[in-house]
Amino acid sequence: MKIPFLLLAAIAGVFAGAFYLDKPYMPPEVPNQVNISYWEKWSGFEGEAMRATIDLFNAKKVKNKNGQVIHCRYLSASQVDRKSILAIAAGSPPDLAGFWSFNLHAFADMGALRPLDDLIARDKFDLERYIPVFVDMAQHRGKMWCLPTTPATTALYWNKDMFRAAGLDPEKPPRTIEELDAMAEKLTKIDPTTGKMERLGFIPAEPGWWHWAWGYYFGGKLVGDDGKLTVDDPKNIEAFRWVTKFAARYGREKLLAFKQGIGAFDSPQNAFMSQRVGMVLQGVWMANFIRFHNPHLEYGCAPFPTAFDNKGQPVTVAEMDVITIPRGAKHVDEAWEVIKFINSKEGMEFLCGARANNGGQGKQTPFKDVSPEWLAQHTHPHLQVFIDQAKSKNAVYTPKLPLWDEFRVEMNAVFERVWLGNDTPENALKYLQHRMQSKLDTMNAVQKRRDAAEQAEQKAGAN
């Protein structure tokens, strides 16, 4: 098998990590059974939910075209993206691999994935069932490279008890950035003697996972229709000016001290669950961790406020975990059967659902319609908010940039400088625009030459 150059180049960094798979063995050979492997990233309750989903598939005894029963072995792998790239380049990939949606475009450009278009067409697999944003995320350069496992959107979570204590209506969250700022000020509590921050209404640095997205809440964007970066768009600058207000209002050193006193996300010391922050931008999954760490917390969920008239189409960050068939997989048809089951209503609602004492990842599904009884039994009390937001025309996701990992790191660094008052939004974003656009131009030129070479090779082979 000819291995693409970019895939070979990606191997170098993989050897730095130890290779470990949970229970890395396949079932013994069974007559009239074909065994396939599935590597995933999850551990804990999320890993068990997917393992149970695969067990449900295996129990159905689905057969391939040769009459063999398909048995899928689920393996939990740390650093699954790096390990999968190594295995794909070595010519011994798993039959299925679970990644994050932001891996998709880079892995597709490396030649690490097998497109699914022919399988979708052959089986008349219905993509119209999906909320469009999740199909858009699965596409790159005109091809479908994956399907969802667990999708998600983000929203504003607010603490109703803190609202009451501050004299705010607990059933009326902020609808605009101005209202958010005013409510945050009322929720903030500072020790009058020491000046120490005991509680903040809101800070854009918590949890710090979507710094790249703040411009969208002000009407900006990061990539134009022509594919060029728009990092220094005036709306993005306006968003980062808003970010600077927090340091100006409370003081750089006090904000640093407050942030350093916040515990890990998955812990009772989480800023929102410990009631040190009254409002936070978080994903649909947050309800799981509230249930685990502070089940008596009374909270609400609503679209995060915007600084522009969104015409009833709220801004939300859409994400999804995805399942793919790696390049060189030996059991493509069998792997596709597993993907189809996970993406059936039965499989998806089993995986993404959550009842009080029964597994599931506690998230939304990617489908336009869900079973009423599934929604009624779900443990997230505000799940409909996240479902509705996925259908918004302003649902955004990480740009499909070949340098996304580097861009994200650089954007986080820019945010830190601006948030703490060490740089101006104008200077920081203009610098990032120039730096990243230059690199993107180089990478696009390389991709263009690679595409031309591949087309020439295919034409030569056809002749």
Overview in brief:
This protein is of the alpha/beta class and 463 residues long.
Give an account of the 3D structure.
The protein is built from 17 helices and twelve strands. The protein is of the alpha/beta class and 463 residues long. It has two domains: 208 residues, D-Maltodextrin-Binding Protein, domain 2 (3-Layer(aba) Sandwich), CATH 3.40.190.10; 206 residues, 3-Layer(aba) Sandwich (D-Maltodextrin-Binding Protein, domain 2), CATH 3.40.190. Strand 1, helix 2 and strand 2 form a beta-alpha-beta unit. The longest helix has 38 residues. The two termini are 20 Å apart.
CATH superfamily of the largest domain: Periplasmic binding protein-like II
- Structural category is alpha/beta
Mean of residue pLDDT?
A: 91
Number of strands: 12
Q: How much helix, percentage-wise, in residues?
A: 40-55%
Supply database-style keywords.
alpha/beta; D-Maltodextrin-Binding Protein, domain 2; 2 domains; 8-stranded mixed beta sheet
Helix-strand blueprint:
Elements lengths: L4 H6 L22 E8 L3 H16 L9 E8 L3 H10 L6 E5 L3 H7 L6 H6 L9 H7 E2 L2 E2 L2 E13 H6 L11 H11 L1 E2 L6 E3 L34 H17 L1 H9 L18 E5 L2 H8 L5 E4 L13 E9 L7 H11 L2 H8 L19 H6 L5 H8 L4 E2 L7 H16 L5 H38 L1
